Each structure stands twice: as C-alpha cells, then as structure tokens.
Amino acid sequence: MYLSRFLSIHALWVTVSSVMQPYPLVWGHYDVCKTQIYTEEGKVWDYMACQPESTDMTKYLKVKLDPPDITCGDPPETFCAMGNPYMCNNECDASTPELAHPPELMFDFEGRHPSTFWQSATWKDYPKPLQVNITLSWSKTIELTDNIVITFESGRPDQMILEKSLDYGRTWQPYQYYATDCLDAFHMDPKSVKDLSQHTVLEIICTEEYSTGYMTNSKIIHFEIKDRFAFFAGPWLRNMASLYGQLDTTKKLRDFFTVTDLRIRLLRPAVGEIFVDELHLARYFYAISDIKVHGRCKCNLHATVCVYDNSKLTCECEHNTTGPDCGKCKKNYQGRPWSPGSYLPIPKGTANTCIPSISSIGNPPKFNRIWPNISSLEVSNPKQVAPKLALSTVSSVQVANHKRANVCDNELLHCQNGGTCYNNVRCLCPAAYTGILCEKLRCEEAGSCGSDSGQGAPPPGSPALLLLTALLGTASPLLV
Fold first, then answer.
1. Collapsing DSSP states into helix, strand and coil, what is residue 285?
2. What is the pLDDT of residues 264-283, one digit of tens each?
C-alpha cells in the first residue's frame, strides 16, 4: 500500500519534471536556442539548434504580374460564367470594387460567398498565346514545410509550370510541369509524385493529375511537399528524425525545399477540347481565388524568431550570429569559421555557436598585462560549442583594467552560481563563491570545504526543489 502510494508520487514528480524541462522532450520542435542548466561548475548556458515556427508565408510576399496589364477590367470587359461557358454576360470592371478582380484577391481570407479571385483578361487576341507570369517574392530565403496549393476559380490551365528561385529572381529553375498532355506540351512522360522514391525525389516531373479543364470539383493544383517528405519520414511523417538527418547531410535535398521566390507560369488556359472555340473567346481566361504557401524563415538553425518590419523579413539571430539568415558570425565572435546549426543529434541538435575572436579575448603581454593565451580556449562539450575560458591565472583587477575585453556578459561569459555581471568588467559573486566568473567556492581556497558545502546542489529557492518539497509534504500523511 505504502509502496503504491510512493510510486504514484514518483509518477507525479516525473510528470511535473517533464513539464518544467527547458526544451521540448519530443524531438523536432527546435523552438529554443539556449537555456540555463546546472553543472558541476555552476549555472551555464546550454545551446541548441533552433528554428522559427512554420506559418502562412503569403502574408509577407510581394506579387508581380507579367505582363503588368494582364488583369481584367481596364478597359471593362465581359466574360463567360464559370459553370456555363456559353453564358457570357459577367462583367469585370477595375473601376468598380464589386466587379474588380485585382491580384491581392489571391491572398485574402477565403470562406466568403461568393468567393473573391484574381482574373486575367480573356483570350480575345487569339491565336496569340494567353500567357501570364505570377511571381511571388519574399526578399528572404524561406524553407517550405507544406504543400503549395493553388485554387483556380476558372478551369485549371491546360499548361502550367511552377518555378523557383534561390537568388531573388535572378535565375529560375522548374519545380514541376502541369499539362493535359505532358508529351505534347513539354516532351515529357507523365508522372506523379507516387512514381518517385528516395533516390529520385529531386526529379522534376510533368503531371497530368491536375489539368482537367472545366470540372466543378477540380479547381486545385498541388505541389506536393509532404509527399516528398514522406519518402524519408514515412507516410504519416512520424519518423521526422530520418528526414532531419537527410536534410542535415544532403545539401541538394535541403536546397530543393528552399526558395526566395516562386513563379507560376500560366501558358495555356483551360480549353477542355481539342480546338479553341473562336466564336466564344470570352470563355478562356485564368482566375485564381487562393494560393497557399506554408514555410518558415531560413535562419540556419540559429533563431526562433523572424520579424516582419518595413516590409522585410529578418531573423532575430542567436548563437552570436548575424545577417538576414544568421549566415555569419558577429564582430568579435569569429574565433572559428561560421557554420549552420545541425538537427543532429536528436532532440536538441548542435548549435555550432560562434566563439570569441582572439582579439576579443585579449592582447599579448607587451601591454604589461597578463592575458590568457589562445590555448586556454577549450570546448567543454563538442555538442555545445561555447568557449570555456581558463582565467585562473589572471587576477580580477588585471581583467578589470583591460578596457577592450569583456570579462562577463549575458551570452558566453556568464557569471556563475548566482553572480551578476557589473559593466562587463567583473562578476559580483555571492559570499560563498569567488573567482573571475564566481566559479569557485571560497572554502576551496581555504581548504575547509566539507560534505555539506552544497557544491553541485540546486539553489535553495529553485522551483524544482520547492515543488518536490510540496509533493513530499502532501504525501507525508499517507506514509505515517
């Protein structure tokens, strides 16, 4: 009886402890860049790989149409109804809000009836091709995390290409071809994503799956991101560790899901027949009611926050990195070459933190001061690349007199054991501790440390200790 009650209390404690963890217990979140932990040397920073949450990226894009005057309504024109291609009394007029179909309606809130949509001019200039380029630009590198979904209010186009850019629109490469007849349109055999494998996942295919002309329930075109993820993570994406491992080690795979811009090339509207009906050209046009693009800012696993300010996305970089994508080390933190974070090992990954430069640590003794040699820099944990400064031979007065070096800060040189950093020149230590970073017990210098010195124990007021005391207090009547 007593044993069962004790086990119940133990289970409760384990549950509460898991809630109090400073990082997710389940792999794959990567939503914390650093946390403070207790070690034998006191309280230190523990760094880990991190990334922003996935979100709707259409809120941050700029859209450009080519040709610029391809949107219907200027001058006003009539077009045929969606359901009945021979009922041609609908009007598009850019000067009347109720009749206008500007590009921003591709990204507004869906769910209203009637739905809102962008619409092109009709194919009144046939046989000249009716072609439109829709370019989506973020001025920022983003990583796609879900399917790209395009919902047409007209029939889906007979021919279309989805393209991507990794250099802000300077060069383009195809993502996928779409056609009612791939062999005739693009000289490619038709395929679907289901025909691919781990070894061919980067293959550019042409699919006939989404090009079927006028059909009431066939308005959507997909570019399948998740189906490609599933080749590594399984059909329900339950083995994301495998996917992250592949993304970590295969640059081509990582780049495949990375873009700065997307371009939708509409090459031929939905005809639905072999021949174009030249007597009813107002039935041929493009209309898109919604585009969905889900992803996250690419921050090279060095940030969890991406801010949108002045129409620009920027990572709020951690790990002493800087730049729009956290793609370089900050000044005075170039002690080794910059490197992106790593998803591995699961669950926290590797931060690959930038470490202080030699010049920021100190200068040679020619200035009549004693400073640590670069050989005193070591890494305390290869998975946690944070420098450990061996300053035991340097007095606090000597360090404080050096005006160009920080003795302590809130990043790497953290005052330990409850010490506080004073003007970056010295640590103000609790009475029981001493040393440059409050890393040593005073009783050690006096040789009087006993078994009750408390070294390595959590601080008396820590939440974990208080909670454990409360639990045991609650349990004590049961054990009497």
1. coil
2. 999 999 987 678 889 889 99
